[in-house]
Amino acid sequence: MVYRKESVFGFFKGMSFPLASIAVYNSVVFGVFSNTQRFLSQLHSREPEASPPHTLSDLLLASMVAGVVSVGLGTPVDLIKIRLQMQTQTFRETSLSLKNRAVALGEQPVYQGPVHCIATIVRTEGLAGLYRGAGAMLLRDVPGYCLYFVPYVFLTNWITPEACADPSPYAVWLAGGVAGAISWGTATPMDVVKSRLQADGVYLNKYKGVLDCISQSYQKDGLKVFFRGITVNAVRGFPMSAAMFLGYELSLRAIRGNYPVTSP
Question: 61: burial class by Cβ within 10 Å (0-12, 13-18, 19+)?
């Protein structure tokens, strides 16, 4: 349907804003996790220069902090992306109840681009409108990052021989890919809720909040609705996360020279 209406360019709708901000977003999230983990490790170490093994509690806490930070940065980015992607249909095709509004606005899309989308949301919904779906994103990202960083650290430690100080690029790539597939696969139910909440408001408001969205979605489509796209998410998560972790590790090694690099 998307290809018939908008050709191949329809699959890349709304990607300019995420692409422009993804480097900052990922560097902050990875930096917050790494520094929080380092801070917690130093608290347990009597020798400031020592690097004690990562404990599960430290990894979980650092992952949760990274998840909270990711919501603050990522919610507006995801919102703009989803709002722009939702413009596949015109107003007239969306709902008969919006017929008068469609006639008044014609066939023009709601948003002309990322900047216009931000300005429109702030004007009509206030600054809080940029954080629509933040609750669902918090429920997705906090456990999601726990299932992202923790498997990565344990897998790299498991794959890497004890004689090696740092994991090999192959170990980083494999562990990062597996961690990404696990994280994105398990995050799918809350990702569905988050996307529905953020798409809400383009044409009309259907949901009052996270629980109302879950309830309405379940009543209309059943339990299976929360697992739509789980295969795509898991498959996509492997190469994306593998490349991300590998780029992060190699960048740190290049910057720090011969100094050992903690994972991640």
Answer: middle
